[in-house]
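Person: At home tonight, work slowly through the protein below, taking as long as you need, and write a paragraph about the fold.
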Amino acid sequence: MENNFFQEGVKDKEEVEGTPSITDFQEKNISIDMDGEKEENVYQRFVSSHPVFFKYCRLAVVHIVAVAYFAAATYSWKTKKEDTGFNWCNGYGLLLLIYTSIYGRLLYVHIFEKHLCNALKKTCCARFNLVNYKNSGQMIEIGVCVTISLAIIIFLVIDTRESRDRLIGLIGIIAIMAIGWGISKYPTKVSWKPVVWGLIFQYVLAIIFTRWPIGRSIFQCLSEKIVVFLDFAKDGAKFVFSDKLVDNGIFAFTVMPVIVFFSFVVSILYHFGVMQYMIKKIGWLLSVTLGTTACESLHAATTLFLGLPETFLVIEPYLNELTNSEIHAIMCSCFSTISGTVLAAYISYGAQPMHLITAMVMSAPAGLSFAKLLYPETKKSSTQFNNIVLKKARQTTFLDAATDGALSAIPLVLGCIANVIAFVAAVAFLNAILAWFGTLLGYPALTFEIILAKIFTPISYVIGVPWEECETVGSLIGLKTVVNELVAFQRFGEIKKTIGFSPKAEAIATYAISGFSNPGSLGVCVGSLSAMANEKKDAISGTVIRAFVGGIAVCFLTASIAGMLVIEDPESKASTLHSYNSTSLIL
């Protein structure tokens, strides 16, 4: 019995010992996890050891999808060709332009620039070494400059044969340049290359965008695309503020959300390096054309996209290394143009997008050009394109950049709203006081705008405004200069809805008030730039007034050139600078 009991106990013990325990399950799970980690580590090691292979695999997939889509779109277009045509602005033609630009750029960078450029450079250098390259280069540049200048003069003589009054704007250009040279810091040390080339560049851009049919069509299409793009902000605004407030066109609920949306998009583009690439290419073009230094050229390119305080951040690491002339140039560029961040506000007041965008592009070279006339460079710059690295985005992820971009627009939105409320109220208060004084003299209609109109009427006339509208445009120029451009555009919209403008006066007025040259911007410029460049505070405070005057003058220069290119039909009152949908064109 004892033996049987003992044997049964042994069997029970063996059965218990044979049963899997919790420890056994944990060991198995650990072994499975270790196997999974080993497999994952093997995969990671394979990926990390073959980065080029996986890079080209990803690129191959992207290009295969892109080519397949293009082939499908081409087939679809060919079946409907008779009905649609190319439709360069909205249809297959636009897709063709996009693909051509992208793949053309890829071919240039990876084939032409790598393999053919060096051979061409060696051949050209061997050829030019036979003569004095520096002297021959200067002679070629002078010859090209003289040829283009003569071509512009001949074009003006022929183009204005039936309306010589359009040449009045030429008086404005000569007067502004003469005054600029007269108040120059070093009039005997002016380098005329950036000054002359800046004027030529500005005039060529104006001809391309306003008189050349192809260029005008491209720019018209671009302005329409920008307006459509900015209008997407209304969808977000309607979700937050309701359809009623947005559809009624209330400023705070319609225009301000566009600033948030634009800042959101710019921050994303900056995160991916797209904005830096565009700024560097435009800056390089300005530097090569005008002969300006790297930092001031890059900053001028930045003003097309960013507002006044943000533009300095792009070149912040180099601000303390800039010369006084360069400090003056970057401030003058800020005062002479407007930025894309507030474009929607001006459009909402009735300004035509094509005028605004053309003014932005033309003012970039003009600001640098006039800055070098007012404050010539007397020292050698320490910054070059080969030693400048644009500041990278501080955000680590795409979502971080998007969120930060939207939030960074809040101060700008609040600042715009506060400025409009304060300055419109201040002008109304000043008008009430002036009306009271005027009543005692038997002239109750006296207002701040009337006083400004009388002061700025001569300027309006010499930049090409028809005499009967000089006071109206003069009041707008005065408001922009003494108050700010937002108030000027708000008044512009009121005049356009009530008494109206002639197409020529509207175009010139839009160009003349498209600039940040006002007392508020002057304070923002000095405060923000001094905070970023402590070592340059004396240079900033000593040159800011000169830069402010330069910004005002650049707006007048741009308006004068635009006024000379406007053609009006006495019967239809059409303008080449006007929208296709509202005017007839005379080429």
